[in-house]
Fold these 2 entries.
Entry 1:
Amino acid sequence: MDLNQLLQRHQLSLMRRDRASSPEERSAQSQFASDFAAEIETAREKLGAPAQVSRPPVRETSDLQFGPAACITTRVVLTPSAKLKYTVVLSHNLEERSRLSFSTMREAEMHIRRISAAPAPQSPLYDREAGEL
């Protein structure tokens, strides 16, 4: 299996883990992703690519709060069969750091707004056409 196939299967395992309907399925998909990551690392070594930086483990939590600087990427995963259907997944440098589940999309969005940094203020000239100065 070539590196692209390994990368694809790793990504699919991560997506299936996000949509897992039971802890057992979630654990199995996590293990598949971990196995593919090890195979990817071996393939990279054979190709002479530099080693990956070690990654901290994924933490699953319902009460961990992150400040604005801690989260670069946020996504919401829908799991229709779960009691809390909407899961906010926080990632930093492409590494999943936390997941927190909510019963409604509105709650998930409010959580994202609460932990996200406010955008920098824009100049009042920002939306003007070039000739409108």
Entry 2:
Amino acid sequence: MSLPAPDNADADHPWYQPLGLRVWNIWATQNGDTLAEFNGKCLNNHIKLYKFNRLLAAKGFALNNDQLVNIKKKLSIDFVVADRSPHDLKKMCEYCGTETDIMKVCAYSRTQLLAFGESMGLEFCDLEDVLVKHGGGMYTRSG
């Protein structure tokens, strides 16, 4: 069962912050009330969005695709996780508190893969790209 999307979700920053030094605020509302808001400093904007998504899920909501695309665009999250180096991928796994050995992840059940992907803030198709590229041939895409 998927979670309902909030009425509104967006990202912004104070107008006076220069590019590269912006501290983004991500927020979501339902019926005019703030559901979740995150503006803490993070290693990168992908992790900031991940933390916001966790806050929002704790309230029983999830961003819809349009909201997610809009926020990613504003935060300049346009990289493909599978294209990151093995070192960067390992650091990301460590930061999210997940298994860092992608070879082990390749042997996970579908349920475990879904949980792993969620803990990393990845859609399943993005997770599969990571496993195919970094799994040393141990993972094949699901049907």
